[in-house]
Amino acid sequence: MFLSGLIVFSMKRKHLLLMLLSLEFIVLSIYFVLFMYLGIFNNEYFFSMIFLTFSVCEGALGLSLLVSLIRTHGNDYFHSFNLLW
After folding, report:
1. pLDDT of 79
2. Which pLDDT score is estimated for 77?
3. Residue 85 domain-assigned?
4. Single GO cellular component annotation (predicted)?
5. CA contacts within 13 A on the Cβ side of 73
6. Which pTM does this prediction carry?
7. DSSP of 18-66, one letter per residue?
8. For residues 23 and 58, what is the distance between their CA atoms, to the nearest angstrom?
9. Considering the domain boundaries, does residue 24 fall inside one?
10. One digit per residue, pLDDT tens: the chain, 85 residues?
């Protein structure tokens, strides 16, 4: 799952929305592996809740960035705006 998320992230770099979706897929795959690892060794799941909290904050930050870019430039294509100025 992680490698397919990385492949989609590297192939769909024209649209910011597709990049954010692939990043969320990568985070979900890491959470799944973490949850299975903690379940196998009978550890507490508290760290997985902290990880989920940070991933939700990261998703909200990415979505707010996407909304501000669409409001200023009209679309989410990377070639339609210049990031350097």
Report:
1. 67
2. 76
3. no
4. NADH dehydrogenase complex
5. 17
6. 0.80
7. HHHHHHHHHHHHHHHHHHHHHHHTT--SHHHHHHHHHHHHHHHHHHHHH
8. 10
9. yes
10. 899 989 988 887 788 888 889 999 999 999 999 989 988 888 888 888 899 999 999 999 989 988 888 888 777 776 666 655 5
Domain-located, residue 62: yes
**Structural domains of the chain, count:** 1
- Which residue range forms the structural domain that includes residue 35? 2-80
**Quick check: 5 and 25 in contact, CB under 8 A?**
yes
- Residue corresponding to tokens 């990415």: 62
Q: Work out the widest C-alpha separation in the chain, in whole angstroms.
A: 51
CATH number at residue 68: 1.10.287.3510
61 token code pair: 């930050």
Name the token pair of 42. 């009978």
